[in-house]
């Protein structure tokens, strides 16, 4: 992003809102609150963070929103309802991305569905491939846990000034991510009616460890995937 010298607009992020309309799916607001339609269906930039389940006062009353931060030609904030199909498919897309992928430009797109529905899909702009996710299991997902997990993942991953981050704060954030993973396993273990002894036995046989706290992030994500599979085939 280039800095333009001289007079210009106030340097603040541009909010983008999601809405299913006949010929567009997202828009901006002018100073007089009139909608400015965005007819393009894709926004490419570096995802720098996300805020989930924010309580926002709207003209229709209080609502919970998710804000996705993207740095492109200017900073953008994509705001969508926390319980919307756009937010849910966005979270599922972000969940499959690795830390390395999140450091590169990505393309966030909108796809109209039935009636008021808008879906989100993320593409790799270098390969033109979409980063797929499994939607069939969406009714089984604890969206609050997933949202927290994605929030911690993104906000830890994007640190423009890595050297300025203290070791303590980095470790603290990493611990919070691990706690989010463990909370997600709690959800699936409860659905499976596993006893603590069953969980310990599986961990011992698979990883040679007796506690989820001893698992690495990679191992606990593998454990989560295994539990998801057991829930869907139950």
Mean pLDDT: 83
Q: Assess the beta-strand content as a share of residues.
A: 25-35%
Q: How many alpha or pi helices?
A: 6
Return Rg in Å. 20 Å
Please outline the major beta sheet: 9 strands, mixed
Number of DSSP strand runs: 9
Strand order of the largest sheet: 3-2-1-6-5-4-7-8-9
Number of domains: 2
Residue windows where pLDDT falls under 50 for at least 5 positions: 160-174
Separation, N- and C-terminal Cα atoms:
50 Å
Query: Per the principal axes of the C-alpha atoms, what is the gross shape?
Result: elongated
- In N-to-C order, the SSE pattern is EEEEEEHHEEEHHHH
Structural class: alpha+beta
Share of helix, binned: 25-40%
Provide the descriptors you would attach to this structure in a database record:
234 residues; alpha+beta; 2 domains; 9-stranded mixed β-sheet; 6 helices; 9 strands; 27% strand
Write structural notes for this entry:
It is elongated and about 65 Å long. 36% of the residues lie in helices and 27% in strands. The termini are far apart. Helix 1 crosses helix 3, helix 3 runs antiparallel to helix 4 and helix 4 packs parallel to helix 6. A 9-stranded mixed β-sheet has the order 3-2-1-6-5-4-7-8-9, sandwiched between helices. It has 6 helices and 9 strands, in the order ββββββααβββαααα. The protein has 2 domains: 120 residues, no CATH class; 66 residues, no CATH class. With 234 residues, it is α+β, with helices and mostly antiparallel strands. A hairpin with a 3-residue loop joins strand 5 and strand 6.
